[in-house]
Amino acid sequence: MSDLERYSRQILFKEIGEAGQLKLLKSRVAIVGVGALGTVIANHLVRSGVGYVRLIDRDLVELSNLQRQTLFDEEDAKLNLPKAAAAKTRLNKINSSVTVEAVITDINLDNAEELLDGFDVIVDGTDNFNTRFLINDVSVKFGIPWVHGGAVSSRGMFTVIKPGETPCYRCLFPHVPAATGETCDTVGVLSPLTDIIGSFQAMETMKLLVGAKTTPNLEQIDIWDVTSMQMDISNGRNPACPCCVKGQFDFLDRTSEHQVAYTTLCGRDTVQINPRDKRELELKKVAELLSRSGKVSGNDFLLRFSPAEDMSIVIFKDGRVLIHGTNDIVKAKLMYAKYIGS
User: Fold this and answer.
1) Which residue range forms the structural domain that includes residue 129?
2) What is the pTM assigned to this prediction?
3) 3-17, 144-158, 170-184, range with the lowest pLDDT
């Protein structure tokens, strides 16, 4: 019993107990994204004794992260450490008896199956819709449950997706939303919100791992107005869903119209990002949101947004984007996710 002493208060909770704790110790969880949500999720799962936790993230720690990304400190930001690596170091000090693996990479259709297959639960700590649709494809293909969460401004949501039992993410959100510019970098986000949503995600993950009943709802919270809404999604499965009904994994398919094409423009220090599913943006609305984060100019056909002196982003009405100031596709994707969304 001595090895379980650190979990004694958790074991006293009868719905977990010693049997549940032993299940946690044998469990494997992959967390995609180690930012505001991911750090909270990882912190709780590692403290709770989940035996193996894989952290997947492509980004570096920045000073602006420290307001809400709870595993990082000023030294991490000063050293520009990869988020996954910095989180692993901190988590190893919290609980050295569990295995924490840091994977510093951009998860995409080429590596998603390899990175996520074989885990008991996948947890969403991401900041964009395309990655969530990718997680959903892997989840349904391999029968792995996943816990979705999202937070921006003062609003957050979470739900549990269990292939074969609940609607999949694509049942709930049939189409990738058109870019609106409403991200944490354009409208902000409150630290207590990410703590709350991430904690709920960690709790639902633990329920899945011990075999307990999870929420049947898409839970939505606004912590500024102190309001909440529960949407029962039990019967929300789409009988024509391309993913969980037809077995069509568009976000794992390079030829799919849902893929986003990233192209380095030769000699121009520019990356072009071109969604294949054509859309028409409301440029005025996008401009209003982006103006909070930098200089915006434009016309009826495009916007030019400058978040920094050495970089500018040109956004066309059909959703095509040019990111000037880099030829690094991963860096361009980070900028796209920060300011454009999906």
Assistant:
1) 2-252
2) 0.86
3) 170-184
Per-residue pLDDT of 277-331, as tens digits, reads: 667 888 998 899 899 889 999 888 789 999 888 889 998 888 888 999 898 888 8
Q: Are residues 222 and 280 in the same domain?
A: no
Q: Residue 154 sits in a domain of what CATH number?
A: 3.40.50.720
How confident is the model over 117-135, as pLDDT tens digits?
A: 999 999 999 988 889 999 9
Cα 275 to Cα 185, 235, 297: the distances in Å are 21, 31, 22
Packing angle, helices 191-210 and 36-48, rounded to 10: 40
- Report whether 318 contacts 216 (CB < 8 A): no
**Do residues 334 and 59 touch, judged by C-beta distance below 8 A?**
yes
How far apart CA 192 and CA 160 sit, in angstroms, is: 21
The verdict on 242 and 302 lying in the same domain is no
pLDDT band at 99 (very low <50, low <70, confident <90, very high): very high
The residue to which tokens 């996954």 are assigned: 84
Query: 188 and 100, same structural domain?
Result: yes
Helix, strand or coil for residue 308?
A: strand
Token pair of 299 as six digits: 């016309």
